[in-house]
Amino acid sequence: MDKVMSNKTVVALFVLPSLLLIAALIYMPIVLTGFYGLMKWDGVGKMTYIGLANYKELLRDSLFWNSVKHSFLLAVFSALSLLVYLLVALILSAQIRGAGLLRKLYLIPMLLSSVAIAQLWLKIFHPTSGILNRMLVSLGVEHTPEWLSDPSIVLYAIFIPILWQYAGFYILIYYAALKNVPASLIESARIDGAGPWRIAFAIRIPLIAEIFKVTIVLAVVGSLKYFDLIYVMTGGGPNGASEVMASYMYRKAFSGYDFGYASAIGFFLLLICLFMTWLIRKATAGKETIQYS
Amino acid sequence: MGYAAKPAAWSGRLPGRLGYGILYIALAGIAAIQVLPLLWLLLFSLKNSQEVFNLAPFALPEKLRWENYEKVWTQGHISTYFFNSVWMTVVAVAVTVLLASFVTFAVTRMKWRLRSFVLGLFMVGLMIPVHSTLIPLFSLFTKLHLTNQPMSVILSYIAFNLPITIMIKLGFYYTLPREVEEAAVMDGCSVYRLFAGITLPMTASVISTAVIINMIYNWNEFIFVNTFISSDKFKTLTVGVQNFVGQYTTDWGAIGATLMISIIPILLAFILLSNRIVEGIAAGSVKG
Lengths: 293, 288
Fold this sequence. Notes:
The complex is a heterodimer. Chain A has helices spanning 2-5, 8-36, 53-60, 62-92, 99-111, 114-124, 131-138, 154-179, 183-191, 196-207, 209-224, 228-233, 245-254, 259-283, and strands at 39-40, 48-49. Chain A is mainly α. In chain A, a hairpin with a 7-residue loop joins strand 1 and strand 2 (48-49). In chain A, helix 2 packs across helix 14 (259-283), helix 4 (62-92) crosses helix 13 (245-254) and helix 13 (245-254) runs antiparallel to helix 14. By secondary structure, chain B is mostly helical. In chain B, 73% of the residues lie in helices and 0% in strands. Chain B has 13 helices and no strands. Chain B starts with 15 loop residues before the first helix and ends in a 5-residue tail after the last helix. Classes of the chains: A mainly alpha, B mainly alpha. At the A-B interface, helix 1, helix 2, helix 4, helix 5 and helix 6 of A face helix 1, helix 4, helix 5, helix 6 and helix 7 of B.
């Protein structure tokens, strides 16, 4: 048995193709992003080594820091919305008839492409014909908002489809975790006279704390990486009011042909994602190990 | 199962039935918010622009204008984009799931020294933002003359979906009993036959979960195609829809029909396979 199952040729045959693929398409590019960040390069011509000049420029670039601020604002909104999703999952896991169907209906937007979602919400937000403003008009509102062209509200407006897209995903995760809380614990708490809110806060929520940490990491790191939806809906505008890190990087590279500078942004994005993952895990670390299931 | 709080227990001081009713209405309200925008999309895909602007948003037009679908399908390459999405998705999913099965088998069933390190490499891949790899990938594919070739997109799909696919499979592989394998090896079965004839069939259910999740990811993918492919011949639906809609900004019926065409396959899959999709999303939830 051991001899057959430790056959090195077989291991190599099974593992190497995949390993080479991720080495070439994930790990090597990561290293190269850091390397390109040290270059002045338009993407086609010759590269010139300029040391940390791109990174120094990043520090002074107010458009860049704006995009960082927007990314973090979205991350904070997303993290806060997790509390609402948790509440919905708590209610859903009470004996609600049709919970299975509701959970599936919640999930539908998550399955659609961000491009389709963005196009649909462009129509919903349309100043005169979108359902949102038509509803407001029928309620008697005279000055309906210009959702996506008003710099002071565009970021909040963009967050609405993000909420819509991911609600079902987080509710699903919390619901599954809550269903795994042993019935005996809840039963004995109830016999001791604990009410439903007490049971929720003293037993059910603490027992799914580990899942909650995972979802915070997902929500925060996911928000820092937002791209498709914003790129399609506003392109970062108006006037940079909805620019995020990834959209700024994309614009610098593929519209501005400043590949060196864009790579520096890309490298910064990588570091910040890894750092935030580490930070959140550290800040919320218990004795539990990270669960991959 | 039996632990669920009784409905009455959730209602605080309200009478049980009333409290339950309020909760139910709240939950149904959320469901409506999740579904109504799509219903609105379906409705305006069947109207002409005049009807979109004049009729109430959720009113049916007098005549359902299926010609919107016919128009966009035959004009503006939508059918080409659709079939590109289909075949690129199918190829990438097949290769990804097969490669991931090889890796998961080697990591969980075979004995070798570096297996946890190699598994770690795949799992760390989950944390890498795609955008940070985009510029080097673009220049790599340019050098290899793969830009504007479906190969660049397919290879990227495979590489970036391998980690999540392996993760979905891992849990299932760990629970497989070793006795079956031991018996097969005793009978003189080779590793290859063990893998193909015994392990793969035993993991059919997790394979189908992985296939569905991969399909959804690839079908919806945007940034790789948008960056690597510039010719209409090889664009997929997400990017094609984006360009197409740009040309028809005022024809809501056409835009609606295009969007519906891009989401119908996913909605169909959802209606047929929702349990597997729910399971797959839960199993792969570490990917943001």
